[in-house]
Design brief:
Blueprint (H helix, E strand, L loop, with lengths): L2 H20 L4 H10 L4 H11 L1 H10 L1 H4 L3 H24 L2 H5 L2 H22 L9 H17 L4 H12 L4 H26 L4 H22 L4 H20 L2
């Protein structure tokens, strides 16, 4: 890797850290850059997942105020994210890419629809929503998003926000804070597993980590100031971009 290629990877990490904190889909920035500098697809995907972990944790810390009062949710949903991330990492090294990525655009479309109609659905489902704040459906939805995140990760945040938007009656910024914690642990457990079961490009990991930590803090400062309608619009734009890029591969 040349000096200029290393700089490009760091810059991509900054953008990805910021995007992941505000919405998700930072992988759509970093993954193509790693491919462009010469890494094979699986190595690039594995190194990308591991390198963005510090940025995810940085973004979660930046949203710590919005996490207050959500400890019960975190304790209940974190196991779902962790188990999903482990299973997704295993699938990455055992299944052909086509077996899973074929449905990725469909999943993102569903998530975007859920994000867009969330206010209407919240009003319609308010009287039906159980007191356990999402219940079993939310747990399995987060688990499924964790599987996807452990496998590839692009737009994982969009999926989680779409699922929670329908099943949880909560302010969008507080859901975004919770999303940052859940996706951070998906990336973390998947990344740790990749160390033992896949090839890792450690230089790429280090460069992405440095950039994503900076980006995570920038994303938290920007994202926390966005009104719900604007944040919802950002989610939709990023999600559509994810679909376009995935379909063009």
């Amino acid at each position: 890797m040349t000096v200029w290629e290393a700089i490009a990877v760091v810059i991509a990490g900054v953008f990805a850290g910021g995007i992941n904190t505000v919405v998700g889909s930072g992988t759509l920035v970093t993954f193509p850059v790693l491919l462009a500098v010469g890494y094979p697809p699986v190595v690039a995907n594995v190194s990308n997942s591991l390198g963005l972990v510090p940025g995810s944790l940085s973004g979660a810390w930046g949203y710590r105020e919005e996490l207050k009062g959500q400890s019960d949710r975190i304790k209940r949903l974190l196991p779902a994210s962790i188990l999903g991330g482990i299973l997704g990492a295993i699938l990455l090294v055992t299944l052909p890419a086509e077996a899973f990525t074929a449905i990725v655009p469909v999943l993102i479309v569903i998530a975007l629809v859920l994000v867009v109609i969330q206010p209407w659905l919240n009003r319609k489902l308010a009287h039906r929503r159980s007191e356990n704040d999402g219940g079993v459906l939310l747990w399995f939805g987060v688990f499924a998003a964790g599987i996807y995140g452990g496998y590839f990760g692009a737009a994982q945040g969009v999926l989680v926000m779409g699922i929670m938007g329908v099943l949880v009656s909560e302010h969008l910024q507080r859901m975004n804070a919770l999303k940052n914690v859940l996706t951070a642990f998906v990336n973390l457990v998947a990344g740790v597993m990749f160390i033992f079961i896949a090839d890792v490009a450690w230089l790429a990991v280090l460069l992405l980590a440095v950039g994503s930590v900076v980006g995570g803090q920038i994303g938290a400062k920007v994202g926390r100031k966005l009104p719900p309608a604007v944040l919802r619009g950002v989610i939709v734009v990023v999600g559509v971009a994810a679909i376009v890029q995935l379909l063009m591969k």
